[in-house]
Amino acid sequence: MVSHDDQVELAGFLAYDCTVLLAMFVAFVRHWDRTPIRERHPTIVIVIEVLVALIPYSDWVVSQYPGSVMASLVGVVIFDMTPLHGTLLRTMFLYCNYRRTKAKVLLSATGVALCPPVVDVATSNAGQGQPGRVGQQRPQVTRVDVFFAAHPFLVRETFWFKAFLGCIVADLVVIAVTYAMCSGMATLPASFTSFNNGATYLHLILMVVFIVRLGNCHDAFHIKFEITTNAVLGFVAAIVIDYVIPPAGDVHSTTKRLATWLLTKVTTSVSLLLPVCWARRGVTRVGPQYGRMDRLLDVDVVRMAFTEYLQKEFAVESMLFYEARRQFTRKWSRAVDRTPLSVMTTLSEQSHSSASMAPEWAVPVGSVPGELVDDAYAIYKTFIKVGAPFEINISSGLRRAYEALFEPDRVEQSPAGAQAPPAEFDVVDKAMFDRAWGELRHMLEYAAFQRFLETDIAADILKMG
């Protein structure tokens, strides 16, 4: 006999699902062919979300048959674990897509690294007028990269859907074995409950591991954001349901059923409603606002691919300068105290490592390490000075300004009547090379970078997330 409270609970489930949840599904299907829903591989997504929507009903049905081991097994294994399988497989698919795209960037037709060497500006020879070392290589191709490049089936939806069906078959085997072992028992043993909880947390931990391994991949269609959000919600809800909600003598108590219902509706909203909102508003990371070069170059794979593209165009010095400037900025942030400094530095080709540093006020503050001054001078000698081995294309006025800072003796010896260089710089600081990069970025962004975005590898990178 179904109690009145259970009838009210079931009516509430049905009312929500027949109105709000149904509207979400209809909106999701209506925008099926639009970005970013089209890129979410809806077949497996729809199956997962249907199963997630049924979890509260399975718990409700199981609670009506407390003495049935089979009912408990079906509810716990099929309707609780199967959605976790699907979400984990989606995370693994995203990771495989990322690794395969990265492998395609690293591999050439001959199977060697595509990326050129990076300039190492930290050199002890800068004081003798030597440029920074060129020889620190980007990460080489590994066996893992070769594996992902040689197995394209890892990024096909059919493979992962078959894996999803295989997980369901494995669940059925677990049900059959457990039912045979628990024959004659009124309820499932506590050991099986512990095993099921362990499997749940294992799924969530693996999801977090793959998400972390994705690093700063270009999450073009917010798939990583969606999966990460659901993983965090799953962790929090699992802890609350298992350890915070006080036990009431029944695994499927009303409080736990309502907590499970709330979790499933929130995760379903994240997976269905947010993509619809993004599709209607056109919020994807492949639009003009995310096509800007300075944003995309923050992604490691984009940076490697664009460097390789510029190498083919015989203009790689711009990205080598970008990488050297990036290393200099990061090293400065690690080495120098965050307290602002006004560092008046005078350099010459023979004594560039000697710096006269005067704080703007009398409060004791840190000083710029000589190694950073050496690094700045190495960048100047390698990229900016006239005749540098990787001379970049910047305006003559800006080049003379850098020359006035790093080689004041040469400026003083200029022919009489020559125009004095502008006083653009009088300090050595973290942002001293931003002006040069700003000019390069303006030239690259509307020419070479736009051509790069039209290549096949750029299309793969933009669709990676």
From TrEMBL:
Alphabetical keyword list: Membrane, Mitochondrion, Transmembrane, Transmembrane helix
PANTHER family (alphabetical): DOUBLE HIT, ISOFORM B, REGULATOR OF G PROTEIN SIGNALING
UniProt-recorded name of the protein: RGS domain-containing protein
Annotated InterPro entries: RGS (IPR016137), RGS_sf (IPR036305), RGS_subdomain_2 (IPR044926)
PROSITE patterns: RGS (PS50132)
Span of domain RGS: 292-462
Lineage of producing organism: Eukaryota, Sar, Rhizaria, Endomyxa, Phytomyxea
Pfam families: RGS
